[in-house]
Write a structure and sequence with these properties.
With 366 residues, the protein is of the alpha+beta class. Helix content is 38%, strand content 24%.
Length: 366
């Protein structure tokens, strides 16, 4: 990204998407979170008309499937069992970020299908010349998914998101719940006060160096508790604090003047993106308060229309987060394995539809 003009790149980004900004992708690379060493080798694809950037694709050559949130390890196993290499593979995505958005950035007025066809043809030619097994576009928005569908295999998934339906405040939102579910939420929020925990919301410009250090310790602990290393490092977060602080929201939980937990979100034009959470020890309902209820209140106060709380989490359903379809798009160079994967995706799609329907029936609304 250091070789790409930041102003030209950012001019192609829609909805002030924080993860597509040049600053975000550059911080990933300059901090070392994304590199050949970590298995994310940047190969961003650019299209110019003369010296004017017309379109761009954040693109990586991957040597593994970690940090993608679209799980294709079974596909890699099928390649291995067929005595073929699945890696390296192309991935068009925001590293470690399962949030929907543009995956091909384009200047307004350009022929979108022409650009997409150009990019896909280029990637396929590079793949055939360099023995690269496949191309994967992860979490494109619905519009771009439809444009990709004629050329690629489409995979469907499910996440849970909150939608602002002109609620006046948090209490107004809870009035849409059934009595049982409303009492449950109120009880969880009371638990925070009973444990004498207070919550502090800070914008990026307000966060001190010490608070960044504290947040990072919490973030790192989330992975260490699972026996893993964190994907991102402190340098990454501190660089974002300097280059795009206006799109950062930090929630800190405090008990007896000591920080006991933290949740970090990113702010788009109409969307709040909940991303990272951590704590030293477990407190009753603190995760729900810091990660969800504080974010919902922020959305209501700042007229954000969507709260995208990230991957997984069926516990979000009872708190009013609705199941939505997410997508990925795939090209598999080997014809036989491409057919096998296409058949798998068709079967998986039916299961996903049933799962989404079941989740909808569990929503807490009256």
């Amino acid at each position: 990204m250091s070789e790409v003009d930041a102003v030209s790149w950012n001019s192609l980004v829609e909805n002030n998407d924080p993860f597509l900004r040049h600053e975000f992708l550059l911080a990933l690379e300059q901090s070392g979170s994304v590199s050949i060493k970590t298995g994310w080798n940047p190969y961003h694809l650019l299209a110019f008309d003369g010296e004017t950037l017309q379109a761009a694709m954040p693109l990586y050559l991957k040597s593994h499937s970690w940090g993608e949130y679209v799980f294709d390890q079974q596909w890699a196993d099928a390649y291995y069992q067929s005595a073929m290499d699945y890696y390296p593979k192309w991935v068009n995505a925001i590293p470690f970020t399962p949030c929907q958005g543009q995956r091909i950035l384009m200047k307004q007025g350009i022929n979108e299908q022409t650009v997409i066809s150009l990019f896909i043809d280029t990637i396929q030619q590079l793949s055939e010349l360099n023995n690269i097994s496949s191309f994967h576009c992860l979490f494109p928005n619905t519009t771009q998914t439809k444009l990709l569908e004629p050329s690629l295999l489409i995979r469907e998934g499910v996440q849970f998101q909150w939608f602002n339906k002109d609620y006046q405040d948090f209490d107004d939102y809870l009035q849409t719940f059934s009595s049982r579910h409303r009492k449950k939420i109120n009880k969880e929020r009371r638990k925070i006060h009973e444990q004498e925990i207070s919550l502090l919301r800070l914008s990026g410009l307000e966060i001190s160096t010490q608070q960044w250090d504290v947040f990072f310790q919490f973030y790192e602990l989330t992975y260490l508790k699972r026996g893993q290393e964190a994907y991102l490092n402190l340098d990454f977060f501190k660089q974002l604090a300097k280059t795009m602080p206006e799109q950062i929201l930090l929630v800190l939980a405090i008990k007896e003047n000591v920080y006991v937990g933290a949740a970090l979100s990113f702010i788009g034009e109409n969307t709040l993106y909940g991303r990272y959470w951590g704590c030293y020890e477990e407190y009753n309902s603190l995760h729900f308060e810091a990660c969800y209820y504080q974010g919902l209140e922020y959305c209501l106060e700042h007229n954000k229309q969507v709260f995208d709380s990230g991957a997984q989490g069926e516990h979000k359903i009872s708190r009013g987060f609705e199941p939505v379809s997410t997508y990925s798009a795939h090209w598999i160079q080997n014809p036989r394995l491409s057919r096998l994967i296409a058949n798998f995706l068709e079967r998986e799609k039916n299961l996903i539809q049933h799962y989404k329907k079941d989740c909808t029936q569990q929503l807490p609304f009256k």
